[in-house]
């Protein structure tokens, strides 16, 4: 911890101003929903002298929930030009972490998301800020986290890989590496960056269109799309949506249900922490396969228990257990591993446009879920979980068939793993020792 003191400072700053704010916002809005809908009703009545109909209220509420997604999408679209022009101080976690800690540090993204969810649920309780008079204050708390990040980021070092690859600043790269990783010998990390620089020689930062056309990144791109979309369509939002109904059916008092839901957030938070500590001991691919496989099984069982919950008195209790089990599996598997894997699939020149596409799909998917999900639940009821099972099944098959293990591998080694998928057997497999010219000639075939 002392050795990587500056690195952990960056992780905290990025987490507090970024993924923590996201998790807090999507969690807090659920607890403030009753008061916000009441505010909409009162405002509508004051302006139009009539009560708002249910359909209009659902549409307005869905629009409010989706507003954060639209803002995130616009921010993602502008991220490439802004980061290229002004630099990426303390940015992509995968670039500022040594190879042996890459999975652990990338997983911190999910840890801060779940921490935000947990604190959003806690502050949303009626004993704190979840009241009719204080809910506006609850919705503004994320501004404090953003201010902390804004003030502290200028004092943190930039990414060594960014300094070397994009700016050609070898001295600055070594200085940043010592600040981030300590003064011990880091020649292995420097050599890895130099190999990537040699392989990417005369290669400028890709645009989105160039990424889409690059055959050498075709299957990495496909897997990124599949895994990114599946994370949104895994059913986690449906689980949280149905939790209140399940707990009520199980006989819990209405006033106690928010505290039980807080237990869900606690489980997800500690599951993500556990994932961060064991991701380097076990492979990323294994986490995804076991995680999605168990999630399919739990969703199938949950669909059954929810359908039969009024026929057997003990069935709702089974649903409660399955909901907690799903949260634990999700937090300890796909939620913690997906983004670290995606960041490891791309080289420095292609990582920014790839993550821009991935995050654009993430925000667009979140917006779509916010707008459409209430209507899906209304029409499909508990069978909406079957839709999510379909998406997870497609992702499981794709990961099993096409995703190699990325643990303890350099970016160029991972790229070589995909070579036979992108070019077929007709082209000789590229390894880390192949000259870049051979790869370029092969890519032009």
Any overview of this molecule?
The longest helix is centred in the N-terminal third of the chain and has 33 residues, at 54-86. Helix 2 (19-31) runs parallel beside helix 5, helix 13 runs antiparallel to helix 16 (315-332) and helix 15 (284-307) packs antiparallel against helix 17. By secondary structure, this protein is mainly alpha-helical. Helix content is 73%, strand content 0%. The protein has a single domain (5-443), classed as MFS general substrate transporter like domains (Growth Hormone, Chain: A, Up-down Bundle), CATH 1.20.1250. It is globular. It has 22 helices and no strands.
Q: Any chance you could write out the topology, listing elements then pairs?
A:
Layout (H helix, E strand, L loop, with lengths): L4 H13 L1 H13 L1 H16 L5 H33 L15 H22 L11 H6 L1 H11 L7 H6 L4 H12 L5 H13 L8 H6 L4 H15 L3 H14 L7 H22 L5 H24 L7 H18 L1 H11 L3 H33 L3 H19 L8 H7 L1 H5 L12 H8 L2
Helix pairs in contact: 1-5, 1-7, 2-5, 2-7, 4-18, 5-14, 5-17, 12-17, 12-18, 12-19, 13-14, 13-16, 14-16, 15-16, 15-17, 15-19, 16-17
GO molecular function: D-glucose transmembrane transporter activity
Organism: Alligator mississippiensis
Pfam families: Sugar_tr
């Amino acid at each position: 911890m002392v050795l990587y003191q500056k690195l952990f400072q960056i992780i905290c700053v990025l987490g507090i101003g970024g993924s923590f704010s996201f998790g807090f916002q999507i969690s807090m809005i659920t607890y403030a929903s009753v008061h916000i809908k009441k505010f909409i009703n009162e405002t509508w009545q004051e302006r139009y002298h009539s009560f708002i109909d249910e359909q209009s209220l659902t549409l307005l509420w869905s629009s409010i929930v989706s507003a954060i997604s639209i803002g995130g999408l616009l921010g993602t679209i502008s991220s490439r030009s802004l980061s290229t022009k002004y630099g990426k101080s303390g940015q992509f976690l995968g670039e500022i972490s040594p190879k042996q800690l890459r999975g652990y540090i990338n997983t911190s993204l999910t840890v801060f998301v779940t921490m935000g969810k947990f604190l959003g649920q806690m502050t949303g309780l009626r004993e704190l800020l979840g009241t009719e008079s204080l809910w506006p204050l609850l919705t503004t708390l994320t501004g404090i986290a953003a201010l902390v990040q804004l003030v502290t980021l200028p004092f943190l070092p930039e990414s060594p890989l960014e300094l070397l690859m994009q700016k050609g600043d070898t001295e600055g790269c070594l200085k940043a590496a010592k600040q981030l990783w300590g003064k011990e010998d880091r020649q292995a990390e420097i050599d890895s960056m130099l190999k990537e620089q040699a392989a990417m020689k005369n290669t400028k930062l890709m645009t989105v269109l160039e990424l889409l056309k690059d055959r050498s990144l075709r299957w990495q791109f496909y897997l990124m799309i599949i895994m990114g979309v599946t994370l949104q369509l895994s059913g986690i939002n449906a689980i949280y949506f149905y939790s209140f109904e399940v707990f009520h059916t199980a006989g819990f008092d209405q006033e106690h249900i928010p505290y039980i839901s807080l237990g869900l957030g606690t489980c997800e938070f500690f599951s993500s922490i556990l994932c961060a500590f064991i991701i380097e001991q076990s492979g990323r691919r294994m986490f995804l396969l076991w995680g999605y496989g168990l999630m399919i099984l739990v969703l199938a069982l949950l669909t059954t228990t929810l359908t039969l919950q009024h026929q057997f008195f003990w069935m709702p209790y089974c649903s409660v257990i399955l909901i907690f089990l799903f949260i634990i599996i999700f937090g300890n598997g796909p939620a913690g591993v997906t983004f670290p894997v995606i960041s490891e699939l791309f080289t420095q020149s292609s990582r920014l446009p790839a993550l821009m596409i991935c995050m654009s799909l993430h925000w667009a998917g979140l917006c779509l879920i916010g707008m459409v999900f209430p209507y899906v639940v209304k029409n499909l009821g508990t069978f909406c979980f079957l839709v999510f099972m379909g998406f997870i099944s497609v992702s499981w098959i794709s990961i099993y068939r096409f995703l190699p293990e990325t643990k303890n591998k350099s970016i160029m080694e991972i790229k070589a793993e995909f070579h036979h998928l992108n070019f077929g057997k007709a082209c000789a497999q590229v390894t880390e020792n192949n000259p870049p010219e051979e790869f370029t000639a092969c890519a032009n075939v």
